[in-house]
């Protein structure tokens, strides 16, 4: 394939237009790599999002209007992430989702005396606030709300909601610290000198 600076990526332009025709809403300056989508109209991507390849947007349900997977402006989503959604997920502005993260908003029923497969699923929407950072391979389960500015360490399994500006890690994830003002330029100079 020939690429010209003024032409951009023809495959990416075609892909973006193809998904738009199927109802996916894609914001300004958001480039669309190779992805997997079951119901394109269920996906909303905000402005200036950066998506890496092999992301799976799986809406696990029958057709319905509206967007169940909402990714707001300037969000980064890393390679091989999976969105397995039946109720909904909303990711706030400026968030960073590292490679391999998984979001699953439903479970099988596990009532004793009945086969697991036919039991009704238990589902609840997932929400990430603004400026959230998830490390590689984090799993976020049903009903979790992650507050603004929270950080989740790589490999964690998040089963309960996280307040704003806290740092969580582990399986299951639990609070290990909170973000501080350390890291601001003036704090760095005060601590280490110029």
* Total domains: 1
Percent of residues in helices comes to 10-25%
CATH class division: Mainly Beta
- Quote the distance from N terminus to C terminus: 49 Å
SSE string:
HEEEEEEEEEEEEEEEEEEEEEH
Give the beta-strand count: 21
CATH A-level architecture: 3 Solenoid
Largest sheet: 7 strands, mixed
SSE map:
Layout: H1 10-21, E1 25-26, E2 35-37, E3 43-45, E4 50-51, E5 55-59, E6 69-71, E7 76-77, E8 82-85, E9 89-91, E10 96-97, E11 102-104, E12 106-107, E13 122-123, E14 126-128, E15 133-134, E16 139-141, E17 145-146, E18 151-152, E19 157-158, E20 166-169, E21 174-178, H2 185-192
Parallel strand pairs: 1-3, 2-5, 3-6, 4-7, 5-8, 6-9, 7-10, 8-11, 9-14, 10-15, 11-16, 14-17, 15-18, 16-19, 18-20
Antiparallel strand pairs: 12-13, 20-21
Structure description:
The protein has a single domain (10-192), classed as UDP N-Acetylglucosamine Acyltransferase, domain 1, CATH 2.160.10.10. Helix content is 10%, strand content 30%. The chain contains two helices and 21 strands. The protein has helices at residues 10-21, 185-192; strands spanning 25-26, 35-37, 43-45, 50-51, 55-59, 69-71, 76-77, 82-85, 89-91, 96-97, 102-104, 106-107, 122-123, 126-128, 133-134, 139-141, 145-146, 151-152, 157-158, 166-169, 174-178. The strands form four sheets. It has a seven-stranded mixed β-sheet, with no helix packed on it. Strand 20 (166-169) and strand 21 form a beta hairpin.
